[in-house]
Amino acid sequence: MELAALCGAELIGDPQLRIDGPASLEAAGPNEVSFFGHARYAKELASTRAGALVVPRALDVKDCAATLLRCSDPNAAFTHVLNAFGRLPARPAPGVHPTAVIGRDVQLGVEVSIGAYCVVGEGARIGAGAVLHPHVVVGPRATVGERSELRSFVTLYDGVTLGARCLLHAGAVIGADGFGFDPRIGRAGLEGWDKVPHGGSVEIGDDVEVGANACVDRGRFEATRLGRGAKLDNLVHVGHNVQIGEHVLLIAQVGIAGSTKVGAGAVLAGRVGVNTHIEIGPGARVAPGSNVWHSIEGGRDYGGYWALPRGEWMRNQAHMNRISELAERVRALEKTLAKNLEKRLGNEQGGGA
Amino acid sequence: MELAALCGAELIGDPQLRIDGPASLEAAGPNEVSFFGHARYAKELASTRAGALVVPRALDVKDCAATLLRCSDPNAAFTHVLNAFGRLPARPAPGVHPTAVIGRDVQLGVEVSIGAYCVVGEGARIGAGAVLHPHVVVGPRATVGERSELRSFVTLYDGVTLGARCLLHAGAVIGADGFGFDPRIGRAGLEGWDKVPHGGSVEIGDDVEVGANACVDRGRFEATRLGRGAKLDNLVHVGHNVQIGEHVLLIAQVGIAGSTKVGAGAVLAGRVGVNTHIEIGPGARVAPGSNVWHSIEGGRDYGGYWALPRGEWMRNQAHMNRISELAERVRALEKTLAKNLEKRLGNEQGGGA
Amino acid sequence: MELAALCGAELIGDPQLRIDGPASLEAAGPNEVSFFGHARYAKELASTRAGALVVPRALDVKDCAATLLRCSDPNAAFTHVLNAFGRLPARPAPGVHPTAVIGRDVQLGVEVSIGAYCVVGEGARIGAGAVLHPHVVVGPRATVGERSELRSFVTLYDGVTLGARCLLHAGAVIGADGFGFDPRIGRAGLEGWDKVPHGGSVEIGDDVEVGANACVDRGRFEATRLGRGAKLDNLVHVGHNVQIGEHVLLIAQVGIAGSTKVGAGAVLAGRVGVNTHIEIGPGARVAPGSNVWHSIEGGRDYGGYWALPRGEWMRNQAHMNRISELAERVRALEKTLAKNLEKRLGNEQGGGA
In chain A, which residues have their Cβ closer than 8 Å to the Cβ of B292? Predict the structure, then answer.
């Protein structure tokens, strides 16, 4: 099985096994190869019918009937497998498409791939091995790091810098103006909003991924920053001057208001909203749909409409989910007390009669 | 009135009436044509000044002064009317614009319309009568069904399949990578996130509409699916491996986390968030702004920050909206009890003296 | 210092001071120029080390060591400063790029700038001095007002009208179909959704800004409207027939359901959701993450999952954040009462013995 060589894997089992393609642990049949990379899939592993499995070298898989491909980095190995079967979006070959419009003083690294109808502004720099899919706009003086990949309809505004090995999905917008307006108050009250100019930029570290149609605004004076290894999902909004630490995860539709800091390794689940000018501590984890109003410490879990430490939130939420019952109990107490009072008054009156 | 013929309508009233254009029931005047398609507009119907009305054949409109155009499908009929007055976005004529970049082995059906600057990747198939507005990117091996229409800046990633008669609005992104990362833990704790490769695709059924800037991610092994007749509004996010049933409505800004199933005919109102790996039963209806944490049964209404059956939610919400009062009542009870206790102790002490 | 002339500023201090660039009040050093425009930055002003400061003419800055540039409009002045140092995204020079595809009967005003790969549909009008960055699509019969600027990948659908001096950020979609579908009920229940045709348009006033990837849908009969001076942030959704008043602010990820009216000067903070067919009064302010279910009066502040007047919400929220404690207190009351009852029964029985 040439897959073993492809993966740099140690093969344990049948080297003659024919493999027709990849599949999930649940769906794979005897001529398919699947993947076990994380303990949370132990149940699926136990019942899989996959003919072959890419597994971590460390894994102890005694009773597994499948042929094993043991690797030090199963995710990377399985990427090779998926590529071998043509299952991953293709990385275009190097070259500059004749329709690409390349501005003056642009620096193109070796082996860049620039697709049809890309527009690269004056003074921009595209690092070696970078890929611009068709219809990417790189603004004047913007920088794309080595081997980064920009999917179609990505916009980098003027002067934005992007590290190495980043992946920006279709429609991501990096460097639009921060949302800043000062009220213009006249005799009749509000007469309009004066635009606050945004002279900062956006600086994105190495190995950052940005989801489809996500937006990261430029700073006012200094840069909005996404730290190395940060991953942003689709439709995320990052406001002006925000500082996102290394390896932060911002899951789909998260919104971070201006000037806020998110510490390294924090994970904000889908649809979390974060207030302006606050700090999320490193490694904090916030449950989906939460709103973070005040700064929170790192290393803990939070959640809720008004985000609180997770335990507190869960207790509160349980009570809110049966607040009608609580209200009933209060009403019952009021009735009992009123009856008691009546009785006592009755007794006293009776006693006084 | 040639509109009647245009609509295939039975005319009841003045065949000589001059019609200058379409308008809403509220705004229409004696030389305008309006539309009555649903009982919820009965009030507007009663007071309309419209000269002519497109109405369902079944409707009993006795006292209506307007000239009536009775049709079996009033929506379709009124579409003809709006088109006659140039009020609907135009469907471009067939033909391939000379600037379109068509890859190798692309199959183009008859009468396709491919606009300026479209890029169609190697091995893609565009069904008969399909329309690609200017600036659409169809990835390698992707499929667009017959008579589907893709507005500008739509991206179909590699291998995505789209049924017949779909409509994708501007900026929609179909098939970006699912958001999957495994933590890489070193001696110093989190050292980064390993990208989980996504070798699945997206399969979209017939008659699906996807709103502007909406995103549907590709699956990990198998496909993310949107069932026949599903309608997604603007800025909706559908995560990897999600299965959306037939005729589901996802209203603006809804977000569905990975691997979740939404049963046929379910309606999720605007800004609803749905947790990962759960099931929304067929025909369930969820109120705007709700978060669905656990699987819910079909055929019922739900709502709330922590979505509950609608009746329960409404009762709870009413109590939460006056929880200050409830807290006051608890405080009053505590005071009364404390006073009673004091009094009793007084009595007892008095009695003991 | 030629900056003074550039700003039209009165210089107070050292006219020979060398300025190397702009910076924030906090970060600026003795050879940098900063900006003080709003009283909320008084603290930063007090401790700034900036060599020069752009300030409002009215400001009384006695003890400030910096050289002052006093102007009547500091925001505008500082825009000149930022431009002088190349810190703002560049406005492209007039001219029509040879790759732009301009339809029949298009009217181009003097000094328009139309970038590479723009597509301007038949009968569209582009006002004098307007800028279309590369890759903008202007639909048939759409209108762009004088000096408006459209960033890359903006889509204007057919017939949309845009006022003067508007700024639309990358990926904004104006005029996609409203989300309207009528259920088609057959013998087996829901058989599908009939698309409700949308023959209205979108009308956008002067001086409007629309954020990246924001979406404004077209009306059904009449137009969806954004009033003069309104500002929309990234990823905002405005549904069909919505009427947004003058100078309204809609901060990131706000969603407004169809047919709702937002009165002049209202401010909806990030991620606010607004129900369909309601009215937000002029000057109302709604806190981030709120859901507005019913019409609300103008001139007041609101907030909460079920938005209430701000004071009421804050009181309620405080109680909800410690509802576990409230529930404990109710339980304690129940116990006390039960004990009292027991005691009384004991007494009565004792007394009756």
Answer: none
